[in-house]
Every structure is written in structure tokens, then in C-alpha cells.
Design a protein that fits this description.
Layout (H helix, E strand, L loop, with lengths): L1 H21 L14 E5 L13 H7 L7 E3 L5 E3 L2 E6 L4 E6 L12 H13 L12 E6 L2 E6 L6 H4 L28 E7 L3 E6 L12 E6 L3 H9 L5 E2 L4 H4 L7 E14 L9 H10 L2 H7 L5 E3 L31 E7 L4 H15 L3 E7 L5 H5 L5 E7 L7 H9 L13 H11 L4 H17 L3 E13 L23
Parallel strand pairs: 1-10, 1-11, 14-15, 14-16
Antiparallel strand pairs: 2-3, 4-5, 5-7, 6-7, 8-9, 9-10, 11-17, 12-16, 12-17, 13-17
């Protein structure tokens, strides 16, 4: 598999060189104006850069979008477009806006911010950050008053989600959100070339100060070896998600390793097919040996799967509860299952091959499907596969540990890849969501996590450490455990 990737990268290298040299304006820049940054991203847009799905993090990582709040390194809500906020009662919060300008030149007003949140609340399917939440937003002087249908003690965390970014009114004119030239971040999206490239220019009126780079030329390169080669040959300045198989071939000075809240898991389709049967789910879970994946696939750049939250979630360390009520495994007797994954993260197809062998040894017949993520997601959500291996950052949506449980494992969850609908799980998640105290909420989240794991709908495999390739002359790259940021005002070369 790795030999095949290497051959592909050699064939792609001339094409990539031409691509980076011919598009995105003057990539050399000047000392006074700041050089343009060349960035290789692993995931092409899957939903036309809609902020209401996975593409939201593409926009935030490129410094295009912002919400009312942001997350700091400890997972706490900090000011962004809102410079302060206060809770008026159990269901209502008041967010006071700072002076800021949209990239189309219009002013960021309370009415515009309220309208943006209203559009997000009306989106279908609902953004993961709003799973199970109904909110209304209205202008109130120089502030935005946000009211939720039920008490929401983590609303400031929720509003930090990339999917709740604020756009200018004209962004919504065509019936879908158009992020080109309508956001508030330090870089303005000026051109999108299908699913292959995007061009961004510096937004000089950014409230946080003029960015040091004059712009960003982004390319979406699904092949991980090609991304690594682009960094090695000087075609890009930043390459995200460097495959572990390529790390040894790169200059150590160009590698940045980040512990994240990302977990690679096996999701079993509980809504249809063989894994509706809890006994077969238990058989699949017992067949999995995650140590073989951590050592053989991730080559030490991961930790064994231990729950839904990764080691970057320090408050969960040593406090997890043992899942109860698991079904007894039944003999598969040659049951046929289809296992799917995507190749944007090269470790996943290798992990799928290992799991295929483990499940076959346990008595399953396994057909493997590997596609690019953009061509796979809708089929997974529709339940067209029996099992799916994916890498999910558990805190990327809201920063709240309950958020990922609600979106991924409840009956009404918008990103429920396992298609789980279990009343015990729903009650546990609802109980956790009702806790306002941080410590109590974390403990309740761990109880809900144990309820989810007790269904065997998901089998954690590994907690990843993400490797980002950064050219030696580049400074100010923003690496965080939630993988929301990458390029910011201080990123330069």
C-alpha cells in the first residue's frame, strides 16, 4: 500500500509544482507586504463550503470565519466577535459585540449577528453544535440576546463552533451560505476552484489587526504522500495530516506533533443490517485488537482507544466508568458485512485492512470499501454500510464533552454514523446536558459515554496525535487539540 502511495506521489509531483506556480497570485510576496502562504489541506469541500457541516472547519482553519466566541487552549470560551457576555437567566444570554467589519465592507451589527445565528438554527440538517438545541437570537442595543428553549449552561462554548460563524447579510441571499467575501476573519476567501483549490487574500480591515501574510493559496490534496512530498520539495509551506508512514522521510525540524481530542473508532450500523443484532456487535467488539492498530498502523503516533475522548481531555484521565449491560457475543457464522472508510487520512485504509482480518478471524465475511471522504459521507449517514472507520475530534463542534454525544449517538443526532437510537443513552446524554457545574457536567458526560459504549455501537480504536508539516521558515502556525485553527494573523514566512 505504501509503495503504491509513493509511486502516486512521484507521478503527482510535477502536476503539483505547476499547480502551485500558476495559481493564487504572486506566491513570492515582498518583505514589506508579507509573502503568501501555500497550504495543503487533506479534505476537499464536501458540501460546497457550507458552514453547517464538516466544511466549517476548513473555513476556520484558513482564517476565514469567526463566531461570537472562540476556544482557548484549555477549552474555555474566550471573546471573538463578542467582546463580553453575561447570563441573564437560565435560558437567556447577552453577548456584547466588538466593533468589526465584514469582508464586504459592511458593519458587523447585532442584527446581522442575530440573523446569522437564526439561519444556522434553521439549517437542515442542523449543525452538530445545535444538535438538540433550539435558540432564538435578537438584536438588543449593541448586543445580541440569545435565548434557548431549555437551559443551556454551555452556550458560550456552543457559539464558538465553526458551524456558527457569522456572515454578512448578503451571504444568505442565494438560499445557501456563500462564504466568498462575506466573513470576518483575517483572510478573505476570493476564489474557489471546485474541490481542488481556494484563494484567499488578506482582509486589511480585520478587527484583530492586519495579517502578516498577504494571502493564502490552499490546495485540497487527499493523497497524504502527495502532501508530504509537496512539503519536502518546497511546493507548500504548511501540510496538514502528514501520514505516519511519511514522517521518517521528512526533516524532523518540519514536523509538529499535536495531542488531540481526535479518536479513530469503528462505528457499527445499529439501524439496519447485521449489526442491528447486539450479539453480533459484541462479537465485532471482542474481535478487535486495537494494539495491533496503534503499533502497526500508527507506528507510535497514537494511544490505544480508551473511550470517546482522547488524551488531550485531561479531566477524563483515570475517571472513566466501565460500560455495563453489554450483550453477550454471538457466533457470526459467516455473516457478511461491508466495512467502509476513507483515504484522506492514509492510516485509515490500513487500519481497515487490519480490522478486516480480525473480523474475518472471528467468523465474519468482510467486504472493504475505500473512498475519498467527500464521496462517502452521505452514504454512511444513510446507513448504506454495515460498519465504518472514521477519525472524529470529539470536541471540535462545541468544546463541550456532551456535544459530541448528542450529535453522534442520540436518536435526533445530526451526525449519527452508527444510527444509534437507544433511550438509555438519550436519557444519560440529556442528564449530562442539564448540568451547569463544569465538574458535574464532566462526570455526567463520562456516565453518558459509558452508556454509549455499553451498546457496542462504537468501538474506540486509537487516539491520534496529528502530525503537521511546517516549512522551517514558517512561523505562527496555530495548532490546537480541537483542530479548529491553522492559519491566523501571525502566520508568516
Amino acid at each position: 500500500m505504501r509503495r503504491r502511495h509513493t509511486l502516486g506521489s512521484l507521478l503527482l509531483a510535477p502536476l503539483l509544482t505547476a499547480c502551485f506556480a500558476s495559481q493564487g497570485g504572486d506566491t513570492s510576496g515582498t518583505a514589506g507586504d508579507g509573502s503568501r502562504l501555500r497550504v495543503a489541506l487533506a479534505f476537499p469541500p464536501a458540501e460546497n463550503l457550507s458552514p453547517y457541516g464538516d466544511d466549517a472547519t476548513l473555513l476556520s482553519r484558513l482564517g476565514v470565519t469567526e463566531g461570537l466566541t472562540a476556544l482557548d487552549a484549555n477549552g474555555a470560551a474566550v471573546p471573538a466577535l463578542a467582546e463580553s457576555w453575561r447570563r441573564e437567566n437560565d435560558r437567556t444570554w447577552l453577548f456584547t459585540l466588538r466593533e468589526a467589519t465584514f469582508q464586504d465592507g459592511s458593519e458587523v451589527t447585532p442584527a446581522a449577528a442575530a440573523a446569522a445565528l437564526t439561519h444556522a438554527g434553521e439549517a437542515r440538517p442542523a449543525p452538530a453544535a445545535l444538535s438538540g438545541v433550539t435558540l432564538t437570537a435578537k438584536a438588543a442595543g449593541d448586543s445580541v440576546r440569545v435565548t434557548t428553549k431549555t437551559a443551556d449552561p454551555v452556550l458560550p462554548l456552543r457559539l464558538s463552533s465553526p458551524s456558527l460563524a457569522v456572515f454578512a447579510p448578503k451571504a444568505y441571499a442565494a438560499g445557501r451560505v456563500n462564504p466568498v467575501g462575506t466573513a470576518t476573519g483575517p483572510f478573505e476567501l476570493t476564489r474557489v476552484t471546485g474541490s481542488t483549490a481556494a484563494t484567499l487574500d488578506r482582509f486589511d480591515d480585520y478587527w484583530g489587526g492586519r495579517a502578516q501574510a498577504s494571502g493564502v493559496d490552499a490546495r485540497f490534496i487527499a493523497d497524504g504522500t502527495a502532501r508530504a512530498n509537496a512539503l519536502r520539495t518546497g511546493q507548500v509551506d504548511i501540510a496538514e495530516a502528514i501520514p505516519v508512514a511519511q514522517a521518517a522521510a521528512l526533516d524532523e525540524a518540519t514536523l509538529r506533533e499535536t495531542a488531540t481530542t481526535r479518536t479513530t473508532s469503528l462505528q457499527l450500523n445499529t439501524g439496519s443490517g447485521p449489526f442491528e443484532d447486539p450479539g453480533l456487535r459484541a462479537a465485532a467488539r471482542e474481535a478487535v485488537d486495537s494494539s495491533a492498530i496503534v503499533k502497526g498502523v500508527f507506528e507510535g503516533y497514537a494511544d490505544p482507544g480508551d473511550g470517546l475522548y482522547g488524551p488531550a481531555v485531561t479531566w477524563a484521565d483515570g475517571k472513566r466508568l466501565r460500560p455495563a449491560g453489554r450483550a453477550t457475543a454471538t457466533d457470526p457464522h459467516g455473516t457478511s458485512v461491508t466495512l467502509a472508510t476513507y483515504d484522506n487520512r492514509p492510516e485509515l485504509p490500513e487500519a481497515a485492512q487490519v480490522l478486516q482480518q480480525q473480523l474475518q478471524k472471528a467468523g465474519f465475511k468482510v467486504t472493504l470499501v475505500v473512498r475519498e471522504y467527500a464521496r462517502l459521507e452521505s452514504d454512511v449517514l444513510a446507513g448504506k454500510f454495515d460498519a465504518f472507520i472514521g477519525a472524529r475530534n470529539s470536541l471540535v463542534d462545541t468544546g463541550d464533552p456532551v456535544g459530541v454525544l448528542a450529535s453522534d449517538y442520540t436518536c435526533d443526532g445530526g451526525y449519527n454514523l452508527a444510527r444509534l437510537c437507544d433511550r438509555t443513552v438519550d436519557r444519560a446524554v440529556a442528564a449530562a446536558d442539564a448540568e451547569a457545574d463544569t465538574g458535574e457536567r464532566q462526570q455526567a458526560a463520562l456516565r453518558a459515554e459509558a452508556a454509549v459504549l455499553g451498546t457496542d455501537a462504537v468501538v474506540p480504536l486509537a487516539h491520534q496525535r496529528i502530525i503537521t508539516g511546517v516549512a522551517t521558515g514558517v512561523r505562527g502556525v496555530l495548532l490546537d487539540p480541537y483542530e479548529r485553527t491553522l492559519v491566523g494573523p501571525g502566520t508568516r514566512r
